[in-house]
Write a structure and sequence with these properties.
alpha+beta; outer membrane lipoprotein receptor (LolB), chain A; 5 helices; about 40% strand; globular
């Protein structure tokens, strides 16, 4: 299997697991007494934007024993579209993921192939009931409950760890999700494990900086571990701007030959 195909699979797997401007930070999460108050405070502290242009990312990928370092970029129009571009060499776009509420399109530009799938496919393959808003939240450091459109407050519980920090727990028959909250109510880490299965997905955020009055993590780590594969992606964000005006144009699918995603995953 070629190096390019491995990178493409990583984009796909990362995506699976992978507003109004504000810079306010709420009071310490450790003093929160109810789950309703904690959720409200976290939502006040999370990055809120209408558009995000992460124009420069240094991406380090580890897939089992293989390691790759590539450049990437990501553009988000909130609740509408999320486009990821991978440029492994000389700034030439070789891969592109166009993620919308209805579908995920993966373009192999070098081989002129298109892999199209929907969120039902992800559930069938992984048991993770996810949607566009979940993926958008993971990438943009916002609070979410896997498989839900809105935060189901009545299904969440508040627990404090040994250090007194408040954490949000969301458990279903299919998965267990824990969101670790920092003292300033920013999200430190999200852990998602399959109920009764051997997979664990995590998203970790650090090195927060103010960009366009928005407090945003410049280091994002996303990993997915199972019995067969271990995937780790470190996103080192070099440049990001919020609420600028841009449009996202979908690629012309007629220029690509459609391929079966199963064939790609088996390579």
């Amino acid at each position: 299997m070629t190096k390019s195909n491995y990178i493409y699979i990583l984009i796909f797997l990362t995506a699976m697991v992978s507003c109004k401007t504000t810079g306010k930070i709420a009071k310490k999460g450790a003093t929160t007494d109810t789950i309703e108050t904690l959720i409200k405070n976290v939502q006040l502290a999370e990055p809120a934007f209408k558009t995000a242009n992460v124009s420069k990312i240094s991406l380090a990928i580890t897939y089992n024993t293989r390691k790759y370092n590539v450049s990437a970029s990501c553009k988000i129009i909130k609740d509408s579209a999320l486009f990821v571009s991978i440029q492994p060499m000389l700034g030439i776009e070789l891969f592109k993921a166009e993620i919308t509420p209805d579908s995920i399109l993966l373009f192999d530009k070098m081989n002129r192939r298109l892999y199209a799938l929907d969120y039902k496919y992800i559930y069938q393959k992984t048991g993770i009931n996810t949607n566009f808003l979940n993926i958008q939240s993971i990438i943009s450091n916002q609070l979410f409950c896997m498989g839900e459109i809105k935060i189901p407050t009545t299904k969440c519980t508040l627990k404090k760890d040994s250090n007194g920090k408040s954490n949000i727990y969301f458990n279903t028959e299919k998965l267990n999700q824990t969101t670790l909250i920092a003292d300033n109510n920013t999200i430190e880490k999200v852990l998602i494990s399959g109920a009764g299965s051997k997979y664990l997905a995590t998203a970790q955020y650090s090195e927060y900086q103010m960009n366009d009055s928005i407090n945003f993590p410049m280091l994002i780590n996303i990993s997915m571990n199972s019995l067969r594969n271990n995937i780790n992606c470190d996103f080192n964000i070099k440049k990001v701007t919020f609420n600028s005006n841009f449009t996202l144009s979908k690629s012309d699918t007629s220029k690509y030959s459609r391929a079966n995603i199963e064939q790609l995953l088996k390579k």
